[in-house]
What we know:
A: six-stranded mixed sheet; four-stranded antiparallel sheet; globular
Amino acid sequence: EVQLVESGGDLVKPGGSLRLSCVVSGLTFSNAKLNWVRQAPGKGLEWVGRINKKVDGGAPSYAAPVSGRFSISRDDSKDTMYLQINSLKTEDTAVYYCTTDDGGSAAYWGRGTRVTVSS
Amino acid sequence: DVVMTQSPLSLPVTLGQPASISCRSSQSLVHSNGNTYLNWYHHRPGQSPRRLIYKVSNRDSGVPDRFSGSGSGTDFTLEITRVEAEDVGIFFCMQGTHWLWTFGQGTKVEI
């Protein structure tokens, strides 16, 4: 059974930083392309970014609103993807989900981790 | 970015009755490879979103056959032939044709 488990969400002050983790099991992690998607309170889902598998270069890509502040990385030895968020803004308050990427679709999602940015 | 517009946003349903949700995209979802990457998901609070349908009309393993997807180009529909109690929650569409994935606003289904 494929499982994705996010962690690291917290209450943080504006300007702070946070690192979210996504541990994946049930599939060959090194073969997986992965995404981060978020949902702010009362809003729809928003794609944040993705990271390719290392054999394809392992490069991350980002949505414009987060580019420069968000950084996605992966550690294939730990079956874990990370989302580093710097210079947090109140509008970053959301539940953050990690998903698989099957080429045009996200077959599996985690339950999400909540980030709250407030003074 | 491709805008995905779902309707209705709220759908009161009766157990055993059919239901239908529309999803329209601001651009064609036909990929250059000929595939159309329109997906449907079901999300219950506190749980992981579950994919029901991929590439417009392909049902995922374990998804009851009362769920079906149809459509083409920019106009897509999710149909439930007979609503069951477990169907409460949010249904949303997602396009994966364009590199920046975008999502419908979600349709809240209530019994």
